[in-house]
Amino acid sequence: MRNLISDIHLHCGLKGFAADGHPEYQDYTIWDYFPPQQDALNQLNFALRSAVEENAIASQANLDACVTAGLRIPFLAMYPIERQMFELDPQRPFRRLYKWLLRGDRHVNLGTAVTGFPREKIQAYIEQVNDPADLGCDYYAEFLEEQDYLMRQTETRSKQYPDYRFRIANNYDELRSLVVDERTIAGLLTVEGAHSFGRYPSYSIFKKEWEELSTRETLLLRSSFLQNILRVKNAQGGRQAPFFVTFCHHFNNLLAGHARSFSDKAPLALGLNKPGMRHLFNQEAGLNRGFTPLGREVLDLMLDRKQGRRILIDTKHMSVATRKSFYEIIRNKREYEGDQIPIIHSHAAVSGWATLEQAAQQTDDRTTDEGCFFSRWQINLTNEDILETHDSDGLIGVVLHEGRMPGPVFHEQVRELEKQIKRLRQDDRRRLYLERELKDMYLKLVWSTIFHMIKVVHDGRGENGWNMIALGSDYDGLVDPINAFPEVDSFQDLREELLHYLNAGEEIYFLHNGKAKVMPPEEVRTLQFGQTAEQLIDRILSGNTQRFLARYFTEAYLGNTAPVLSSDTTASVL
To answer: Which of 190, 201, 522, 527 fits a disulfide with 136 by CB distance 3.0 to 4.6 angstroms?
Structure first.
């Protein structure tokens, strides 16, 4: 029997949903492997290919791969894809270059390569964004369609593993009964991006800050969000409400400020960097701001237990300003109302900054990470984030993201090892040694991320923080996975490699102001709190998540004291 694995943030259904109904994919289901859109990638010129090739990948988290991995509790992040992904608004200093390079159908090829979606789907998105009528986007309708797709997938079977089944659990009791059968994958519904509940009246609205909205735009947005969230919280007695929502994502949602998430690349010349994802997409509107008035209303309604089932909040992608405000809200509810609300970071890395204030002073470009083993960008967790999460009895999913976890020092060391490996024959003993060293680099990255969090809690609170660490890979979330373990079907290998690395006493870092320092072996042992490597790994890969669900994924905690939504209830909110 393989060890059961859970992952609190991945997108098993994203590619399947995008291809649903397309003639080329009529026999595909959530179980199936989706190949990369290699033709679209090949049609891009070198500059565009270089900017996105790490993200132009095949499916990583289809359910057949989950079976192979023993990943039987996936948190299924639904994501109505943000239309800013398809707006041709490249950024300086490569603005003119990209405008020229993306003429004609190259824009469609780019979107197809990055997402893996059918070409026709990308073409439709681009036409919507560029429609002179500027009719806007009903993300809530798309959320319902994706939710329906996932529900329908419970009726499908794997071609490769026909004895397996896929189900969706609505509470912990259901989950526990489902996973008794080793041939069942039991998913939980979550959402990435609170924009999913809005009807935005125009595409041009995304370029505006909250203060720039007209009265009509404000009223329309408020009406759609509050109505739709109430519907979600009360549909089927709340049974289909997502367990948590990642409040922010890559772009302006007019609810709360987001952190920068797209990076530039390695230095080129004259102080410039190679073109990267940062130069293709405009994240400026709403960047680094806090909650808007509507965002506070939406937050309060999601957390409310009197008007339907509570929806917890995932802070990933929140700006520093938004996180500060959110933590204050959570502390006040805990201290003055006796309402325990756990903070969730579903797919997180660490920055090493001591405080949010320190992080806010950074510019979030390549100079911020210069000379660093880990990335110090604001999107990553500071020590303050980690302590707030521990104090709330929260959960942190460790992301496996080549772009967000490591800094330039790590990448430089990896590139050098890869160059040396390519120069050697397959049977060369030196090659085997270097391949081992390369894999150990990634294991060091993962363990150092984890032990840094444990050290922060130990030093800051004098307590054991192992309850709060989980896996949150973000696989199939249009990201660049870590090269050593690029799909979920490598997770059993990841487990065994992590076990071997810790038992062998290999080097582990902690971070001080983002700079990596070696943790003394005796401190590593102290921070294990008497637990074996196997016990720690089992907690990270499943045990902590199940503990968290046993406490918070229950009808008693989430509550649902309101009746099913009526038209009168809707009217009173507006």
So the answer is: 201
